[in-house]
Amino acid sequence: MTSHRALVPEPAPAGRDPGLSPVVRDRAPARTSDRVYDELVSAIRDLRLVPGASLSETDLAERLHVSRTPVREAIARLVDAGLVRVVPQVGTRVGLISGRDVEEARFVRESLEVAAFEVVCARPVRDVAALRELLDRQEHSYRTEDYDAFFAADEALHSEIFTLSGYPRAWQAVQRMKLQLDRLRRLALPDAAAMRELIDEHTKIVDALEAGDLPAGRSLISRHARRALDLGPSLRAQYPDYFTD
Questions:
Q1: Segment 173-188, tens digit of pLDDT
Q2: Were 165 and a residue from 20, 116, 125, 202 both cysteine, which residue would form a disulfide, CB within 3.0 to 4.6 Å?
Q3: Does the global pTM surpass 0.85?
């Protein structure tokens, strides 16, 4: 497997592209600042912009192919969301991973996903074909060491449980809450043993859902949701500059 350090780059120096995608103007109603915001949120979540990385309005505008105004507006929103911090006499930096925020996100995710699982189990017919397909995608991503595809399939699998429950927007609420948790999860991804365990846990969750086994599902989802917290101490030791509180 690829080394952990290779996946998580150091903050990009001036003139070096951190992997941001240009924001393209189109006929969609979304404002340019909204698209800049979405791209920066994605880059922070995916660790293309690592915790503590310095942010320059000028550099970001160049890399995103926009003017500085929408970048400035997007950064102000990121500050309000706790993803970016402005340090007096230092500058603007990507916020560190907050342990308190990670724990709160875990609580919300676990509570809502258990509730969604319960709703699906109460139904007489439970079609898990889409979930099985996503498990296959994770297996393929694991074998090919495609971490982005692995993470995407992971997210899609949990989203599908909420879709089956009839409450897909509840997953959207979870996603907004768990940005800090996602950064912790991304840090842990290159661990081959952890990835294998994730797939095995997902398989057991899907099996329990198909069987309508509510007690097993509750236990599995709770354990699964707390996995990232278990990895927290070792990740803090490996990346002490990425964390706060």
A1: 999 889 999 999 898 8
A2: 116
A3: no
